[in-house]
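> call design_seq(struct)
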């Protein structure tokens, strides 16, 4: 169902706090009286008030008002840090609640709505459901599967290469595409790369939209099973947290050097191509990492695709040809028949400066109806 004008305002409030609330969902709420918005709220960072509580607190008087909210108000459960919103709504004397989406978290799953109805409050569900579901894909996947939502990003030439045969990759795409990449980095919980990329490029892996370092930096996750990335790598000096996922067998002295450089060393099981991705992703999800922007290189992206962990693709295609032994965008085993290829349904294709961005969902996981 398309969103009503008030739900559109609630969705806009949710979008403004996207990426700042993990592991909580980013939710927006508006309070309406006599056909006018009297207060707006959005989820505060973890531990702070939820959107509904923020809207109620911002309103001079919420009694008799209608509340539009992008996700079902939460319900009391053990270990909850904030006051349940369904109780706060009931106690504020709100007359009617319009909810876009039922909460997929098993601890809520319809109970918040039931509590409101039981208290005699009129509740409507489904206004703006498609947009809310789209906006909350990372949260829904995290709650449904215990895994983070993975977005595979690469910048490729017209012939599908992301670096030359020598490993040089700076810069394939133009400034506008790179800036869009930084905007995306700024809202996800983590950026992920393989050790090959750190060794080749010595990247900072920070979010710098508009050339300015974001206040909140995503966690950097480096996969390095053999202990090859040196403690002198640039990214260890950058603000924010760096996690290095490695094996039990990597040298203990190297682990010590990385820890001394400020990294969090995470020991993981071995997988077919390095670190066991399933175990690593589950561990990251338990550490409140709900969304991951996986930037490559080819080996890591290939392994993520092969294991069907990629939910969304952002492919920037530049009008350049590299040829020769240039590195592919995605390695791994791939598929043997085109019919088995990952095909993005309803891709969004847009121009970004002189480059083209093709993005969309792989369909390996989908949030359901
Ligand atoms: N244009 C772009 O968008 C772009 C983006 C990124 C990188 N690049 C380019 O890509 C090149 C690097 O790509 P790459 O393919 O050589 O390296 P990579 O994918 O960055 O790193 C691969 C390494 O990661 C480690 N690893 C640990 N667990 C893994 C797992 N489960 N699956 C896969 N790898 C795992 C392995 O090394 P260990 O055995 O040591 O753990 C593996 O050799 C560079 O030239 C870089 O410039 C281009």
């Amino acid at each position: 169902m398309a969103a009503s004008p008030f739900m559109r305002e609630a969705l806009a409030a949710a979008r403004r706090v996207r990426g700042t609330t993990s592991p909580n969902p980013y939710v927006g709420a508006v309070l309406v009286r006599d056909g006018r918005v009297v207060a707006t709220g959005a989820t505060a960072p973890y531990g702070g008030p939820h959107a509904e509580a923020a809207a109620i607190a911002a309103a001079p008087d919420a009694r008799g008002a209608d509340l539009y909210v992008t996700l079902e108000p939460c319900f009391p459960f053990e270990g909850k840090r904030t006051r349940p919103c369904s109780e706060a709504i009931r106690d504020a004397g709100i007359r009617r609640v319009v909810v876009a989406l039922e909460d997929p978290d098993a601890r809520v799953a319809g109970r918040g709505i039931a509590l409101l109805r039981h208290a005699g409050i009129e509740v409507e569900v489904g206004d703006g459901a498609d947009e809310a579901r789209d906006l909350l894909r990372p949260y829904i996947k995290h709650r449904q599967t215990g895994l983070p939502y993975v977005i595979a990003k690469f910048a490729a030439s017209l012939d599908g290469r992301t670096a030359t045969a020598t490993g040089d990759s700076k810069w394939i795409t133009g400034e506008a595409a790179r800036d869009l990449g930084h905007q995306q980095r700024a809202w996800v919980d983590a950026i992920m790369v393989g050790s090959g990329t750190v060794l080749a490029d010595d990247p900072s892996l920070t979010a710098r939209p508009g050339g300015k370092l974001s206040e909140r930096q995503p966690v950097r996750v480096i996969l390095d099973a053999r202990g090859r990335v040196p403690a002198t790598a640039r990214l260890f000096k950058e603000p924010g947290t760096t996690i290095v996922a490695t094996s039990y067998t990597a040298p203990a002295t190297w682990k010590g050097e990385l820890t001394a450089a400020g990294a969090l060393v995470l020991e993981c099981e071995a997988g077919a191509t390095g670190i066991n991705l399933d175990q690593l992703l589950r561990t990251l999800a338990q550490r409140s990492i709900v969304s991951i922007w996986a930037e490559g290189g080819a080996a890591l992206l290939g392994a993520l695709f092969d294991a069907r962990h990629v939910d969304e693709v952002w492919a920037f295609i530049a009008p350049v040809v590299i040829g020769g032994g240039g590195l592919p965008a995605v390695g791994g085993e791939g598929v043997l028949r085109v019919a088995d290829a990952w095909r993005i349904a309803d891709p969004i294709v847009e121009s970004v400066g002189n480059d083209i961005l093709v993005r969309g969902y792989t369909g390996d996981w989908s949030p359901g109806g």
